[in-house]
Amino acid sequence: MKILDQSTHAGSPISYAGIIERIEILRSTLRWSTKLERPEIERLLRQSSALRDEVMRMSFKERFVTAAAAEPTRADRSPGECRRALLERSFVFEGTFGDNPKLLEALEIAEKAAPTDLPVLIDGESGTGKELMARVIHANGVRADKPYISVNCGAIPDNLLESELFGHRKGAFTGAFHDRKGKFESAHRGTIFLDEIGELPLSGQVKLLRVLESREIQRVGSDEPTAVDTRIVAATNKNLRRLCDEGKFREDLFYRLSVIHLTLPPLRERKDEIPLLLEYFGDEAAEALKRRPVKMARRLREFLSHHSYPGNIRELRNIVYRISCLAGDTADLEHLPADVRATLPAPTAHGATGKGGTGAPSASSLSEAKRAASDEAEKAFLERGLQDAGGMVAELARRCDMNRSHLQVLLKKHGIRSKDFRNLNS
Ligand SMILES: Nc1ncnc2c1ncn2[C@@H]1O[C@H](COP(=O)(O)OP(=O)(O)O)[C@@H](O)[C@H]1O
Ligand SMILES: [Mg+2]
């Protein structure tokens, strides 16, 4: 990082990173804009080649550092080597875990982007680690010891947005009793993380764009601009390009924010990581809950290895914490949250199950296999019945003409809790 500082030429009006940023903005404008006319395209191309000439005139030393950082990833490296190499370069992972090639690629891009001031846009489904990645970028940059301010753009009411982001002067509106700093000023010299940027209303987008272009903010109720030096990392679980096409997101803001564009893969595309993540969060939960790491029944482990995790890593982590809290020594299917249990594959007539099956454990004798299969069938019958009866044991007893207390005994035997089935259909 120090070397980078020294490499910015004192006499040069704009740093290497600054030029690269401009070239990247021009390139992404040229690449993605559908509305450019030919003269405009030519003007942008001329600008871009002028900037390239400027780069070429920079001394070897000035260019060297970033060029070394931008060295292409060798495709033949194993995930282990990539991770080791990152570790050797003192990369700060901030608790990011995983060996999936797509994740490591994202981390390597983050590593290269971190020491620059280039804006980064991170997209990916909810729970894929976008916020964590933003912290990684901050922690590996020259601003690591400066503020990191996180703003959830989707959680601020429209009428408060401007004041939240840019601050206000006393008396600017009813209730503005004091001067107040906005998030941008709080993040001065540091990083601002704009989460759920796709939720920002168009009026807020215009204001944000102005700040990005001028690097100045104006508090609500003030005419005086204040310079802010803030690195921007934005995240979204929406497809911003599609929002641009639909007219819901400004294209020019999209180019500004996505100079570096990172996409985090959903967990279902990196299922190879699930066993490792289960272990990792199992240990973490054990420490947090001051217990021994929970063991998992084979069928639970099987299920968790194949579950589709619509909530991605956040969902997996929550499940592990839940079962670590609820289970004794060994967790089983009954410790899963009700909505996840509802996705358990329905058993076939033979008690075997399909993908991710909870099938009878492999038995060493025929009679054992029969008993296991019968147990499975009994359990599946009860679960389905309870589901249909809305979790009411009395109703299930009536429907299948069984003694209610016998039914309770069976439910207990299988660790089925009727209340887990109460709100499944609502
Ligand atoms: N690769 C990872 N390694 C370890 N923990 C992760 C990883 N990705 C996400 N997490 C954890 O999962 C949870 C959700 O991550 P978060 O960054 O908030 O996701 P997003 O912002 O995409 O919704 C957090 O507790 C985070 O620490
Ligand atoms: Mg998030």
> Into which percentage range does the β-strand content fall?
5-15%
CATH-wise, what's the superfamily of the largest domain? P-loop containing nucleotide triphosphate hydrolases
Unreliable residue runs: 1-12, 59-74, 348-361
Q: Tell me which CATH architecture of the largest domain applies here.
A: 3-Layer(aba) Sandwich
The major β-sheet equals: 5 strands, parallel
Major sheet strand order: 2-5-8-1-9
Bound molecules: adenosine-5'-diphosphate, magnesium ion
Apparent shape:
elongated
Q: What number of domains? A: 4
Strand pairing plus helix content: what structural class?
A: alpha/beta
Query: Count the strands?
Result: 11
Q: What string gives the helices and strands in order?
A: HHHHHHEHEHEEHEHEEEHHEHEHHEHHHH
How many DSSP H or I helices?
A: 19
CATH topology name of the largest domain: Rossmann fold
End-to-end gap:
55 Å
Which CATH C-level class of the largest domain is it?
A: Alpha Beta
Helix content: 40-55%
Describe this structure in words.
With 426 residues, the chain is of the alpha/beta class. Helices cover 49% and strands 9% of the residues. It has four domains: 1-72, no CATH class; 90-265, Rossmann fold (3-Layer(aba) Sandwich), CATH 3.40.50.300; 266-359, Helicase, Ruva Protein, domain 3; 371-426. The chain has helices spanning 2-7, 16-32, 38-57, 60-69, 79-88, 101-113, 130-139, 158-166, 183-186, 202-214, 240-245, 251-257, 274-289, 298-306, 312-326, 338-341, 366-388, 393-399, 404-413, and strands at 120-123, 148-152, 167-168, 180-181, 191-195, 216-218, 225-227, 231-236, 260-263, 295-296, 330-331. A five-stranded parallel sheet has the order 2-5-8-1-9. It has a two-stranded antiparallel sheet with strand order 3-4. α2 (16-32) packs antiparallel against α3 and α5 runs parallel beside α6 (101-113). The protein is elongated and about 85 Å long. Bound molecules: adenosine-5'-diphosphate and magnesium ion.
